[in-house]
Amino acid sequence: MDKIRTVLSATAMLCATTAIAGAEPIKVKVFVGSMFEIGENTGDRAGEFQNWYERYWKDSTPHEVKGAFRPVHCNQDGVCGSVLGMGKVNSSASMQAILLDPEYDFSEAYFILSGVAGTPPSRGTIADVSWGTWLVDYDLGHRWAPEEGEAGASVFMPRKGYEAYRLFQLNPELVGWAVDLSKDVQLQDSDSARSYRMRYPDAAAQAAPSVKTGTHMTGDTFFHGPGLSNEAQYIAKLYGADDYLITEMEAAAIALVINRTHGTDRVLSLRGAVNFDQGNPNETTLQHLDPAPGETAGGFAETVSNITAVGAPLVDTIVANWDEWHDGVPARSK
After folding, report:
1. Residue 8 lies in a domain
2. What is the DSSP letter of 321?
3. Could you tell me which residues come within 8 angstroms of residue 147 by beta carbon, excluding any fewer than 6 positions away?
4. With contact defined as beta carbons under 8 Å apart, do 252 and 167 qualify?
5. Global pTM value
6. What is the DSSP letter of 63?
7. What is the per-residue pLDDT across 181-199, written as a single tens digit (0 to 9) for each?
8. pLDDT at residue 29 in the model
9. Which N-terminal stretch is annotated as signal sequence (predicted)?
10. Residue 305 to residue 299: CA distance in whole angstroms
11. Beta strands per DSSP E along the chain
12. Judging by DSSP bridges, how do beta strands 167-169 and 110-119 pair with one another?
């Protein structure tokens, strides 16, 4: 009898294992990766993930992925997303774990790397939303103290050997689709953001928020001040990228991970500006980094709402027209 029980138990385990192994993985059509959430995924103050979650995954069942920062959520249409964590290592480690999870098939997936960011006042403003045209790593090179170099010159020199890692040009046709589908989205604004903009003399800083494109600069250093902002622009131009428009902490690293297994033709970086990368002419950089109560930029809630509003038309278009998108980015009508 014990032998029979043993055989039956082994047979049951084998059948269960075979059933699991034979289960079809989820075909991911679009994956949205955010970097942080403030509290819960719904019902409280929204961070980067909440508006996406409420639009696509409110009824989803979270799936824990070993090695990922937070669970993955998917809906019936193949739209999946997760909070990846802040910074290069945190976010890219999560992305790697998710890509390697056998529960998912990313072979035809599009990726939207979504979050908040800073912008130079000469090129953008609070509540702007930007599609990245290039992703540039701010950190891969040599740096020295300003007093140890030529007066007024950059304190950065790229290091050889990082050419394949330090920048990615994102698919212009895909970026074009993203811009075409979002250029007429009505962006939210706030009185506090409008008031804060007027502290800056730049026309771009004082303008109403809009959808823009440009280089997204990825650095673990949360750099501030006109000197380091100018250095970011110097690096972008040194590498042949577009004007530096966004400072963020994850996109180039996540793109590198995706590139190892799937390439970057289906990767997009989507960022909303919640701060300027430098103070106004009447404050020092340290004062800008540590503002007094009531002296912050405002517009955070509006910006994270804008990000989803700008990104969703592309997500919905890909899903609704999957027969045209699954083999690659279709040509746009001119």
Report:
1. no
2. T
3. none
4. yes
5. 0.91
6. B
7. 999 999 999 999 999 999 9
8. 98
9. 1-21
10. 10
11. 26-27, 30-34, 72-74, 79-83, 104-105, 110-119, 129-137, 141-143, 156-158, 167-169, 211-218, 244-248, 267-276
12. unpaired
Q: Which two tokens stand for residue 39?
A: 């509290």
**What is the per-residue pLDDT for 334?**
67
Based on its alpha-carbon atoms, the radius of gyration of the chain, rounded to whole angstroms, reads: 22
Backbone angle region of 171, left / alpha / beta, with phi > 0 → left and psi within -120 to 50 → alpha: beta
What is the per-residue pLDDT for 15? 40
Domain containing 108: what range?
A: 27-325
SS3 322: helix
Whichever domain contains 128, its CATH number is 3.40.50.1580
The answer as to whether 263 is a domain residue is yes
Spell out, as residue ranges, where the chain has pLDDT lower than 70: 1-22, 334
Distances (CA, A) of 96 to 90, 99, 101, 161, 263: 10, 5, 9, 23, 13
Q: What pLDDT, on the 0 to 100 scale, is given for residue 153?
A: 87
Tokens (6 digits) for 242? 């577009």
| pLDDT value, residue 11 | 42
Q: Does residue 178 lie within any of the structural domains? A: yes
Overall number of domains in the chain: 1
Please tell me whether residue 77 adopts helix, strand or coil conformation: coil
- Tell me how far apart the alpha carbons of residues 141 and 158 are, in angstroms, rounded to a whole number: 4
According to DSSP, the β-strands at 211-218 and 244-248 are: parallel
| Cα–chain center distance at 69 | 15
